Amino acid sequence: MSREEIRQMGLSCGADVVGFAAVEDYKSKRAPDPKTILPGIRSMVVMGFRELDGGLASDIGRISMHSRLGQMDQTKSCTFRMAKAIEDRYKVKAAPILASYPLNMAAPFMGLVADISLRHAAVAAGLGNFGRHNLVISPRFGTRIIFTAILTDMVLASDPPVTEVLCDECGLCVASCPASALDEEGKTEDLKCLRNSQPFGIGGAIGFIRKFTAAPPEQQKAMIIDPRFLSLYQASFIGFQYECFRCMAVCPACVDA
């Protein structure tokens, strides 16, 4: 089997970068052991898809989300097609891991920890290293990149790690975070980030339901035409919907690479 053949398959289907990680090189303190996700796993094929600069140029989160939704469709299709091609060609197991739901909503994870940390997988696959914002910085695309992965029982050696320091600790991400979720170095305060970046997610829905059920009938009539309820309704069929991309948008690392 040829690593370069697999890499070219990924690039041909729409990925911008493709890397490989042996499972023993993948390290995540919070995510489960990959061997519990796919028995017999030996390696990961990690693919990166760049964010459009134009999508992040707007201060309106809704406009950035238009770009992200298109990107998510591309990543889902590409990752599934890659996994299927690997199974068909090499007669091995290949499980696609997407950059989206579903997540484990049970305790202790509560939807805050993915089955596979795609950030740590990307680092293990030599596609970048961590910045002050706890996102992966790619040497080619900076922070403006999202990742997917394919778990496989195929034996693939890891690509060399990125040893160059890509984050210059400028602090723009910390200063620009409206939720102050990055104040503590090395940690993203998940709930602070989610309340601000996904106001129409499950937390927002629960809050609205509680207020609605406690409100008198006349107030309920007003609430169902309130923009907040209409945004919650819209999010119910769009899926998870980010309203904040600041840490990605302001990061200057490698933007002219």
UniProtKB/TrEMBL annotation:
PROSITE patterns for this protein: 4FE4S_FER_1 (PS00198), 4FE4S_FER_2 (PS51379)
Keywords, comma-separated and alphabetical: Iron, Iron-sulfur, Metal-binding
MF-aspect GO terms: iron-sulfur cluster binding; metal ion binding
InterPro entries attached to this UniProt entry: 4Fe4S_Fe-S-bd (IPR017896), 4Fe4S_Fe_S_CS (IPR017900)
Domain 4Fe-4S ferredoxin-type: 158-187
Protein known as: 4Fe-4S ferredoxin
